[in-house]
Design a protein that fits this description.
- By secondary structure, the protein is α/β, with parallel strands linked by helices.
- The chain is about 25% helix and about 25% strand.
- The strands form 7 sheets. An 8-stranded mixed β-sheet has the order 7-6-5-3-4-8-9-19. It has a 7-stranded mixed β-sheet with strand order 11-10-12-13-14-15-16.
- α2 crosses α3.
- The longest helix is centred in the first third of the chain and has 18 residues.
- About 45% of the residues are buried.
Amino acid sequence: MREVLDLDKSLYQNWRDVNRDHWDDSDIPAIDYFGNQMTFAEADAEMDRYARAFKNLQTDQDSSVTFCVPTVPSTMNGLYGLNKAGIQANFVGDTMLADDGPTYLDRPNAETVVVLDAFYPRVAEQIARTSVKNLVIVSFADNVVDVPPQLPDQLKRVLDPEDHSAMKAIKSRAMPGIELFSISDLLGGGASQSDCLEAVYQPDRTSVLLYTGGSTGTPKGIEKTDRELVAMGEVYDDPALGLNLQPGERNGIFIPGNHPTGLVNSAIAQWFFGTTQVPQPFYNRLTFPDDVYGLNLNIAVAAPSHFAMFPQANLPDGALRNLRLAICGGEPVSPELFENINRAMVDRFGAQNPLTVCYGMSELGPLTHMTLGHRTYRPVPGVKSRLIDSEGKEVIGAGSGKLEVSAPKTQMKGYFKQPELVQESQTADGYWKTGDYAKRDTDGYEEVLGRANDSFADANGEIHYLFSIEQFIDKDPAVLEVEAQALTVSGGQQLPAAYLALKDGDNEFRADVIKRLHDKCLELPPEERPVGYYLLHKFGTNPVSHKREYQSLPSIRSGYYNYDEAGQLYEVSFPEYGDPIKQPIDAGDIIVH
């Protein structure tokens, strides 16, 4: 029987105590980074070196250390080292830091910044504008002893521990007043001089500062205490969920460590129970099926748009027989997408279980709902949810409305230096307004359909939800991925448009697909019929959230296709002023962008 998590101990203390039974077991490594393994004892020793080194650098007791690094061993060991030393850790994405250094560094009093060498050119100018005293450079090659021969040449180069060209270039542009370190510098010279030997635990201290993904507005700082983070691990271990995490199971991390979902759901909650962390610093959803197969994963955590690549994957039959848990969240999963993924993942490739779909707010866990082998959710242990209708009344039984959630054990300490936002986001009786629209069936399962503001108003002021259009179009067998967005046209009117990525074999018949969708969408209310279809080879990835990019789509003003009532195919553009411009075209003229 394994150790029980203790809410009155620190993050680091719980990690150490629960994993003590396999401390030196090389068959149960703590980290496997491109084939380079580290036991729990070795990871603990490196955490101690980080704790000593960071404490040695710190001149202000209330200062913090900021990580601008994807999920690599330095992120994980550095987090636990800071936690052991009692120093606040901040995690910020490179696109955020490149936009505003003072907000993400000076506000949390960051004396030290840890930056990936590849990120340095885009964030250097902003760091120079701040009061940062120490700059620590991390490379993909850190913790790499042997570069696996099967890696592509480009990846071999970025992982080559003998290639110091990036560090040399950074040193040649050293910033006045900022001391520069490599990881080996930091963990070697002077690290042992600190007196940090025993783990520090301060119950009410903010141990980690994270930021929301920014997909629905400006990223907000989320303060988490040890108690809240450990409580999230306790949720994962609850028998009611049935996750049954086991020591040595290989856990692939395909979500950035600077994001609450990546940090909490992977590097904290699952690592408590002896899973081998397999960090993937490159979040390429197009290669995701090959990565899961090639890394021989038992657990894979990623966005739904990553798992949406499985129906197109070219893997051997039975390739995923070792995959026990496939966990996704962060985006709605339609019935069609859920079935398509599982037909490929389970039926063709032999995964042990269907896709596990999760939901949550970064502020509350971030996991609040989960279900195994089912597309719709139930609240996880310790969480309550309710639906609120358009009149502000709670929906009893089956129905739909805006989702509100209560998770007192795992919710954040607060928004960083923005206490007024808590009052805006929380109800008088302690529920959080998620901003999402959901429906509940007669069995109590809840389906999150999308953001409540993922909608548009027609000429009469009636609200229409774009996710309902997406779910309708997603039923077509040729559609791989779809987004519906509202185009604002002349006079301020909003019209729905559909953005499609088609399955490879159906791209040759793109005109037929558009005709079929046009005819099928006549079943929708007139206001919800797309005014045009825009074809993409693939959707981009949001640089902050690493989910499917959709926010920029309405800025596209031309290149849409549709059919008229007479069956004529035309291209349509939507100028900022004036009426839409339609141009008849032949089927062979359709362009995929």
